[in-house]
Design a protein that fits this description.
Elements: H1 2-42, E1 47-51, E2 54-58, E3 64-65, E4 73-78, H2 85-94, E5 103-105, E6 111-113, E7 120-121, E8 128-129, E9 132-133, E10 139-144, H3 155-172, E11 179-181, H4 182-192, H5 208-223
Parallel strand pairs: 2-6, 4-10, 4-11, 5-10
Antiparallel strand pairs: 1-2, 3-7, 5-6, 8-9
Helix pairs in contact: 3-5
């Protein structure tokens, strides 16, 4: 009888310990869930709507720096990515690479909002413009899906990007001379920091031809 009682007590003890362990795991997972949800919500398509001719999707990333963006410039990029636009958006929202932008423009003109204009996104890296480093802190980063070395920007990409940028250009009085490419601000930084050439390698970016084409269309729109 005593042996049976001891066995029952032992089994109950094991069961209690097992339940306690499971409960602890549940509490740990519950405690971490807000961060997970917050991260997922940051990139959730919370609003898809049409602005003028083009669709706009709001996707907001956590890949931003503290502080307010003192907007004085616009930096143009192309993704040069082998993945589709949706994958590019996911990479900017959740990818390990420290890269984001304010807006990504798809071939059909759809705009994916990655960060709000007043936020500092991670698009220019080591950079220099008009006597200042860290161009991220005073610029809007515009990414065009595609590789302009292989294929030019579509007319819809240019048109949609200008739709997005015109209000900002007027609000912050951004001069045309401050609408530059990533390559320009990176090269300017490297000229002042040649010892860092190996750690900040050159990379293909939006071509000079497409940059000038973009500016030509923009100037025409500004005159209207």
């Amino acid at each position: 009888m005593k042996k049976k009682t001891i066995l029952i007590i032992s089994l109950v003890s094991v069961l209690v310990l097992a339940v306690a362990g499971v409960w602890c795991l549940y509490l740990d997972s519950k405690a971490s869930m807000p961060n997970f949800v917050e991260k997922r919500m940051a990139g959730k398509n919370v609003n898809r709507h049409k602005e003028g001719k083009y669709y706009v999707e709001e996707h907001y990333t956590n890949k931003i720096s503290d502080g307010k963006n003192r907007i004085q410039a616009i930096v143009l990029h192309h993704t040069a990515s082998r993945v589709n636009t949706r994958q590019t958006v996911k990479q900017m929202l959740y990818g390990k690479k420290e890269a984001s932008c304010h807006v990504l423009i798809d071939y059909d003109g759809t705009r994916f909002l990655i960060a709000r204009p007043e936020q500092i996104s991670w698009h220019a890296g080591q950079s220099y413009l008009n006597g200042r480093n860290n161009v991220n802190s005073f610029s809007i980063g515009v990414e065009f899906q595609g590789n302009t070395i292989d294929k030019p920007l579509t007319d819809k990409q240019i048109d949609s990007a200008i739709d997005y940028l015109l209000p900002l250009i007027k609000k912050y009085n951004i001069p045309i001379s401050n609408i530059v490419t990533h390559e320009q601000v990176r090269t300017a930084w490297l000229k002042r920091n040649p010892e860092s050439a190996k750690s900040v390698p050159e990379k293909p970016d939006i071509t000079t031809k497409e940059h000038q084409r973009f500016l030509t269309v923009l100037k025409k729109r500004l005159k209207k």
